[in-house]
Amino acid sequence: MSHPSVSITCICCGRQGPHQARRLIVACYSHHRTHGTLNRYPRAPRAELWIPTTPKGRRTLARYAELIAAHVSPTRIQWELSLSERQRQRYAAAYHHLQNQQDRSAA
Ligand SMILES: [Zn+2]
After folding, report:
1. What integer best gives the mean pLDDT of the chain?
2. Closest C-alpha among 36, 29, 41 to residue 3
3. Contacts 24+ apart (CB under 8 A), 52-59
4. For residues 96 and 76, which has the higher predicted lDDT (pLDDT)?
5. How far is the CA of 5 from the centre of ligand 1 (A)?
6. Exposure of 63 by Cβ count < 10 A (0-12 exposed, 13-18 middle, 19+ buried)?
7. Ligand 1 geometric centre to CA of 97 (Å)
8. CA of residue 53 to ligand 1 center, whole Å
9. To 5 degrees, how large is the angle CA 101–CA 53–CA 47?
10. What is the pTM of this model?
């Protein structure tokens, strides 16, 4: 998600300017996109990661994980769990976050 009107200090050159993405100002973002070097600047992590804490939320997340494991399509998962598109994305983000944590502790 980009916020074109937000002024930031660019992590590439240290200048103030309008934020494009990846904590780069518009000029630097275009430069790196043109030169194929955007991958030097990882996408900024989300400010807050939502993890369900209520019993219902945890049940839904567990069910989400089951459906993902069963290769159910996102549209179908959304319908099965009666979620809005935004809610499904939140569960997806929480699920992937927890998966990554498990992968790291297993390694
Ligand atoms: Zn810059």
Report:
1. 88
2. 29
3. 52/91, 52/94
4. 76
5. 16
6. middle
7. 30
8. 39
9. 60
10. 0.54
Centre of ligand 1 from the C-alpha of residue 30, in Å: 10
Among candidate residues 97, 102, 105, the one with its CA nearest the CA of residue 48: 97
Q: What is the pLDDT of residues 16-59, one digit of tens each?
A: 999 998 999 999 999 999 999 999 998 866 556 788 989 999 99
Both structure tokens of 34: 């043109």
Measure the CA–CA gap between 31 and 17, rounded to whole angstroms.
Answer: 14
**Distant-in-sequence, close-in-space partners of 27: CB < 8 Å, separation ≥ 6:** 17
Give me the residue label for tokens 């400010």: 47
How many H-runs (helices) and E-runs (strands) does the chain carry? 4, 3
Give the residue carrying structure tokens 């000029």.
Answer: 27
Under 8 Å CB-to-CB from 88, ≥6 apart: which residues?
A: 74, 77, 78, 81
**In the chain, what is the straight-line distance between the N-terminal and C-terminal CA atoms, in Å?**
31
> What kind and span of H or E run contains 74?
helix 74-80
Rounded to 5°, angle at Cα 82 from 46 and 77: 70
